[in-house]
Please model this.
Amino acid sequence: MAEQEELKPKPRRGKVTNPEEPGRAGETAPTLEETMPGPIEEPPLAIDDPSYLATLEAATEIFSDDMSPAERTRMKSEITKLQTAKASVTLIEKIIKVMEAIDAVEKKGRNDAQKYDYQKATDVTKEVRKEFIKQGLILLTDIQDVDIIQIPRDRGSPNTQVLVKGQFTVTDGKESLTFGGAGMGQDVGDKGIYKAFTGMLKYGLRTLLLLPDEKDDPEVARADEVVEGGPIVITPANVKGVIQGGRQTSSTGAQMKAIKDAARVLMLSPEQMAAFVVSETGEGPVLDPGDSDAEQAKQVMAYLEAMPFAELGKVVQGLMEAVEASNGGA
Model:
């Protein structure tokens, strides 16, 4: 008869005594549950997190059969409380939450012709879209007016300069907020109108949410702007076009260059430039329709050079914005 294996007692839970290890008598052996690692706990969702309510609703639906009546009642009470709180949040409060969530949209676009950076429309809409979804908001656009000017070229399709005006409506399905918007774009064929639409959308969102384009304080000098060698000493001087205190009074070469570059990019005729000056300052050069384009261009430039510095600055600013919009802001 085969020799039977020695039977060893199974480990028991509870108090054990090991005579070979003095001093441990009466200790409690760890249970299986105590020796197993516990579950990895994820950080809890904040109560005001938009996904917290959805998580509770899903958990109640999935595990309802496994809950005790008391647990089921408690969960339903919590869900009702959160639903009531969510329903009481106004549209303005939701928009403010979007403003709080978006610190800034940096300038990632680059206009090489005019040597400046700008916010891309895709970057603006991407950031706003994420936060709108969290708050349950949508943006509706209503184009109400489109003004198209055909600008002939020596060859190929004409350029189109487009100005669009319309209204935006932000709504959460219960409340609505409506505000106006406008955009300008210029390009060959039908591209101008889409650039105008894009510019209107980008500046509409920037206006609504007061979106900054820099995370750093623009008033603080960058490292490459720090002047070495101590403070700057200003001495009395007699400079043409500058009054006491250093304020410029007459047009500058930099302003005139910016205007010429912008007019070239926008492909503005002398008549269009004259009309643009009127739209920005309220008055402008009067051109003789019988004069040639070259003669009219000279008259416009002479008028601009004679303008005060501050008024000419309005024209420069308007042209820069038009150039940026003509790039589609994309």
